[in-house]
Amino acid sequence: MNRLFLNLSLLLLVALLFAASLMAGKAWVPFDAWFSADPRWWIIAELRFPRAILGTAIGAALGLSGAVLQGYLRNPLADPAVLGISSSAALGAVASIVLFAATAPLVIFCVAMIVACASMLLLAALAWRSEGAVAFILAGTVLASLSAALTAFLISVAPNPWMTAEIIDWLMGALTDRSFGEVQLALPFIALGCALLLFTGRSLDALTLGEDAARSLGVRLGVVQMLVVLGTGLAVGASVAVTGIVGFVGLIVPHLLRPLTGARPSALLLPSALGGAALVLAADSLVRLSPGASEVRLGIAMALIGTPFFFVLLLKGRRASWI
Amino acid sequence: MDLSVTDLSVSLGHRRVLDSVTAEFRPARVTAILGANGSGKSTLIRTMAGLLDPDRGHVRLDRRYLNRISVRERAQLLGYLPQDASVHWNVGVREVVALGRLPHRSPFAGPSQADAMAIGAALAATNTNHLAERDMHALSGGERARVLLARVLAGEPQWLLADEPLASLDPVHQLGLLDQLRTLAAGGMGVVIVLHDLIQAARAADDVLLLKGGRVVAFGPAREALAHQPLRDAFGVEVMVVPDEQGRLLPVPIGLSA
């Protein structure tokens, strides 16, 4: 399929889902109530608009970093979780809640970002000079396990049930009640991280031939690794720092799009960013429509929607060549 | 443009794999590097490609030190065909060949006229034009080897360094690929290949470098290096030298040396 056509279609899809995300919810706000004195417009301007922007941004960050990591590690199972960035950012958020009793988004965001950056540096140090993908995966897995263990420890020492509920929000991911304050905090980091990740395209293409061949083509593996670590750390770290862990997006979006773009990693980057944004917007609109007083958490919804969908895709494409 | 190594010593981990190797490779010739398993063949060719840093000594390209040449220029001058012939994603053949142009392309620019021409020429030279629209995972081993060679040729390098290009090819494709390499050398390219097979080396190579335990046992014209004594020294095998119909002397291994 023509790349420009695909990207424009995905862009259109994101725009439509963005609009749908502004309309959908417990209170349905049709288009004729927009930009008017209608009190429902306030719901859009103050509640749903920042939420839709965040959904777009974290979806793009997760989809793009998933595509980059699958290309970099040459493994279709890779996603941002393998680097332990998401779990360490969540650890930071949980730690700020338990240790400082933080409720302000700014404090939680800062602590989450600091822990995410620290784990990023640790990752770079652990994988330093090896330049190979295996050391990188091992280092990421170790970090993810460490973060998960520390998070579990913090939950077990949390002094009251309110904190536990708050912590669960971070571990399951939610876009509920996010304001422009969070948008302003996260957006610059996500944008910078995504920009760094987009620079890796050609190196990822060269890496399909293996590390030696890529180096002989002039690819500096150390630089690529830095771009991947920094880009994922900033984009995914900031995403998790405002929404908590939203899994699956980084794993399935590149898989969904690979049949359309072809297997070349660089051709997959931009479509995956757009596809991730579309998927998160769609899932976030759906969770708002769920019956009951409280919403289904975004991370849970994503897994519930994603798993069967992915399973069908795998069954259908068992013999497909792109896996 | 000469490619030479001087007093080259390389370690992998704590093990010294190459020990003061000195050799001068000449363009427009096929040079085969031979030796038993673990003798340092791959390490030598990888160091020549700039992929390993020597402990001592240096690689020179036309009297310039290889480590002083920018990564980009090195990639333009030296084409390296690794032993591992796998392609990780099911990429299209033309896209794989186009990867060979990476050292010539400026960042974020699309492919130029020169790129398209070099890709076309590489496909034609390796007789892979008819495969151009296929996907890599749909190719046979022999086709894949030719496409990966086309990938290197698309970069229009002065030197082709190939690590065991014949591994996993049947005799027909082995002969075809060796013919291809001879044609390239006849066109002026310097060709250095790591080989296992003495007979193939005698057929295809102008010069032969014999390695044993990381040291040079013999280096010279194939006829001299593939004689009884050097092969006894390098491999510990006795050979029977048989002339082929073109008068080349083929060393056929017949047993272990006493």
Give an overview of the whole structure.
Chain A: It is a multi-pass membrane protein. Chain A: One of its GO terms (molecular function) is transmembrane transporter activity. Chain A: Belongs to the binding-protein-dependent transport system permease family. FecCD subfamily. Chain A: InterPro entries: ABC_BtuC-like, ABC_transptr_permease_BtuC. Chain A: Keywords: Cell membrane, Membrane, Transmembrane, Transmembrane helix, Transport. Chain B: This is Iron complex transport system ATP-binding protein. Chain A has a single domain (3-322), classed as ABC transporter involved in vitamin B12 uptake, BtuC (Orthogonal Bundle). Helix content of chain A is 75%, strand content 0%. Chain A is globular. Chain A has 323 residues and is an all-alpha fold. In chain A, helix 1 packs antiparallel against helix 2 (40-73) and helix 3 (85-100) runs antiparallel to helix 6 (161-172). With 258 residues, chain B is α/β, with parallel strands linked by helices. Chain B contains nine helices and twelve strands. Chain B has a single domain, classed as Rossmann fold, CATH 3.40.50.300. Chain B is globular, with a radius of gyration of 18 Å. The mean pLDDT of chain B is 91. Chain B has a six-stranded mixed sheet, sandwiched between helices. In chain B, helix 3 packs parallel to helix 5 (141-154) and helix 4 (113-125) packs antiparallel against helix 5. Chains A and B meet through helix 8 and helix 9 of A and helix 2, strand 6 and helix 3 of B.
